[in-house]
Amino acid sequence: MLYLLAEWLNFEGVFNLVRYQTFRAGATLMTALFIGLVIGPRFIDMLRVRQGKGQPIREDGPQSHLAKRGTPTMGGLMILISLSLAVLIWMDLSNPFIWACLAVTLGFGLIGFLDDYDKVSKASHKGVSGKVRLLLEFAIAGVASYLIVGQINTFLYVPFVNDFGIELGYFYFVFAAFVIVGAGNAVNLTDGLDGLATMPVIIAAGTFALIAYLVGRVDYSEYLGIPHVAGAGELAIFCAAIMGAGLAFLWFNAPPAAVFMGDTGSLALGGALGAIAVATHHEVVLAIVGGLFVFEALSVIIQVFWFKRTGKRVFRMAPIHHHFEQLGWSESKVVIRFWIVAIVLALMGLATLKLR
């Protein structure tokens, strides 16, 4: 919105600042943070009144979680509102990548909202059928992949190798949709403790803000030997919005949480990261930067597969963060140590930009 206004005014005077993506990224972060902090208290009060008993707590989960009964969920709506408003204020409205990523974010957020609503209204942790959820997610991811791939090529670029890619052809559409859906559900599985998923998402978004900016610049992408994607630099603004909205939510989600993100937020943020990774041609790097999410998802897959085959468990409880709780780690210890892992993985992901 402001970018179009500045463009109409030929970027005269102070509006010249709006020309620069770095300035708009910083402004977007602060705008999303401000909006989130302002609407947070009243929004949480509204959720508490409307939901009554709040998010259902699993009886078979860690006993310490039973004390969280009554905490409202669907806090992801706060994230979506502040993120969307900040992006629309500062983005270049003509950029197709932003619209594709925003569509995934809001679409996955809607699926998560329906799931959260079903859980709250029925006082059950089951929610919407997994098959229905996946079908809807792949439908949204498929449309977004079509929009994104229309602006880029169909190569899968390999990190640590200088400007090398594997041509996937039409299969790239399927691959891109799988990345988006996989990222959404991986973050969703990670969101099980206060602040556990939020900070790693912020860290990953900050990492991809830098990647998007570098990919969008011809000079930097040539120097680093990474694929250049015209217009991808605008995604740094989207990443900044995720960071600002995430920080605002973390203010209220810090232990003991006043509100839970719910599937509304975790599915949306994960899907957004997946869409950004596809648009910047750094899908493999997302698996490194978001390695914590991958590990959480794998722990569930391994647990289910092994239990069905042998009747025994690999972990005391899955996802893996509950396993460490069962080992006697306090919730805060699990969260902070997982944050440290997320930071290390983000640094490893950034290292792939130069180690080629």
UniProtKB/TrEMBL annotation:
<dbReference type="InterPro" id="IPR000715">
    <property type="entry name" value="Glycosyl_transferase_4"/>
</dbReference>
<dbReference type="GO" id="GO:0009252">
    <property type="term" value="P:peptidoglycan biosynthetic process"/>
</dbReference>
<keyword id="KW-0479">Metal-binding</keyword>
<keyword id="KW-0133">Cell shape</keyword>
<feature type="transmembrane region" description="Helical">
    <location>
        <begin position="97"/>
        <end position="114"/>
    </location>
</feature>
<comment type="similarity">
    <text>Belongs to the glycosyltransferase 4 family. MraY subfamily.</text>
</comment>
<feature type="transmembrane region" description="Helical">
    <location>
        <begin position="284"/>
        <end position="307"/>
    </location>
</feature>
<dbReference type="GO" id="GO:0051992">
    <property type="term" value="F:UDP-N-acetylmuramoyl-L-alanyl-D-glutamyl-meso-2,6-diaminopimelyl-D-alanyl-D-alanine:undecaprenyl-phosphate transferase activity"/>
</dbReference>
<feature type="binding site">
    <location>
        <position position="263"/>
    </location>
    <ligand>
        <name>Mg(2+)</name>
    </ligand>
</feature>
<dbReference type="InterPro" id="IPR003524">
    <property type="entry name" value="PNAcMuramoyl-5peptid_Trfase"/>
</dbReference>
<dbReference type="InterPro" id="IPR018480">
    <property type="entry name" value="PNAcMuramoyl-5peptid_Trfase_CS"/>
</dbReference>
<protein>
    <recommendedName>
        <fullName>Phospho-N-acetylmuramoyl-pentapeptide-transferase</fullName>
        <ecNumber>2.7.8.13</ecNumber>
    </recommendedName>
</protein>
<keyword id="KW-0132">Cell division</keyword>
<keyword id="KW-0812">Transmembrane</keyword>
<comment type="pathway">
    <text>Cell wall biogenesis; peptidoglycan biosynthesis.</text>
</comment>
<dbReference type="GO" id="GO:0008360">
    <property type="term" value="P:regulation of cell shape"/>
</dbReference>
<feature type="binding site">
    <location>
        <position position="188"/>
    </location>
    <ligand>
        <name>Mg(2+)</name>
    </ligand>
</feature>
<feature type="transmembrane region" description="Helical">
    <location>
        <begin position="235"/>
        <end position="252"/>
    </location>
</feature>
<feature type="transmembrane region" description="Helical">
    <location>
        <begin position="73"/>
        <end position="91"/>
    </location>
</feature>
<feature type="transmembrane region" description="Helical">
    <location>
        <begin position="334"/>
        <end position="353"/>
    </location>
</feature>
<dbReference type="Pfam" id="PF00953">
    <property type="entry name" value="Glycos_transf_4"/>
</dbReference>
<comment type="function">
    <text>Catalyzes the initial step of the lipid cycle reactions in the biosynthesis of the cell wall peptidoglycan: transfers peptidoglycan precursor phospho-MurNAc-pentapeptide from UDP-MurNAc-pentapeptide onto the lipid carrier undecaprenyl phosphate, yielding undecaprenyl-pyrophosphoryl-MurNAc-pentapeptide, known as lipid I.</text>
</comment>
<dbReference type="GO" id="GO:0008963">
    <property type="term" value="F:phospho-N-acetylmuramoyl-pentapeptide-transferase activity"/>
</dbReference>
<dbReference type="Pfam" id="PF10555">
    <property type="entry name" value="MraY_sig1"/>
</dbReference>
<keyword id="KW-0131">Cell cycle</keyword>
<feature type="transmembrane region" description="Helical">
    <location>
        <begin position="134"/>
        <end position="158"/>
    </location>
</feature>
<feature type="transmembrane region" description="Helical">
    <location>
        <begin position="259"/>
        <end position="278"/>
    </location>
</feature>
<keyword id="KW-0961">Cell wall biogenesis/degradation</keyword>
<dbReference type="GO" id="GO:0046872">
    <property type="term" value="F:metal ion binding"/>
</dbReference>
<dbReference type="GO" id="GO:0071555">
    <property type="term" value="P:cell wall organization"/>
</dbReference>
<keyword id="KW-1133">Transmembrane helix</keyword>
<feature type="transmembrane region" description="Helical">
    <location>
        <begin position="20"/>
        <end position="40"/>
    </location>
</feature>
<keyword id="KW-1003">Cell membrane</keyword>
<keyword id="KW-0808">Transferase</keyword>
<keyword id="KW-0573">Peptidoglycan synthesis</keyword>
<feature type="transmembrane region" description="Helical">
    <location>
        <begin position="196"/>
        <end position="215"/>
    </location>
</feature>
<keyword id="KW-0460">Magnesium</keyword>
<dbReference type="GO" id="GO:0051301">
    <property type="term" value="P:cell division"/>
</dbReference>
<feature type="transmembrane region" description="Helical">
    <location>
        <begin position="170"/>
        <end position="189"/>
    </location>
</feature>
<dbReference type="GO" id="GO:0005886">
    <property type="term" value="C:plasma membrane"/>
</dbReference>
<keyword id="KW-0472">Membrane</keyword>
